[in-house]
Design brief:
Low-confidence stretches: none
Number of strands: 0
Largest sheet: none
CATH topology: Arc Repressor Mutant, subunit A
Structural class: mainly alpha
Number of helices: 5
Number of domains: 1
CATH class: Mainly Alpha
Length: about 90
């Protein structure tokens, strides 16, 4: 019985191997560029200014990024991108 308990504790103490979730639909180069700026904390206005885009275009890209990464907000998108190695 003691051997079973020790074996169970050993099994539970092993850390699971985390594998990144693949992106369902690949991001374009522009989307990755915007995602990097999002991860740095840039607002849509700041991203638009940095990339010489209209703010509405940035909003469209952000919406596409959230959809492709299945993220509910910018923070979750940045975390998923980091965990999957996109940024």
């Amino acid at each position: 019985m003691a051997a079973k308990v020790v074996a169970e504790f050993a099994r539970l103490s092993r850390k699971p191997v985390l594998t990144p979730n693949p992106v369902i639909e690949p991001l374009s180069e522009r989307e990755i560029e915007i995602l990097r700026l999002i991860a740095q904390g840039a607002s849509n206005r700041e991203i638009a200014s940095t990339l010489f885009l209209a703010e509405g275009i940035v909003k469209n890209h952000v919406t596409n990024i959230l959809g492709k990464l299945e993220a509910r907000d910018r923070t979750q998108a940045a975390l998923k991108a980091r965990d999957s190695g996109l940024i």
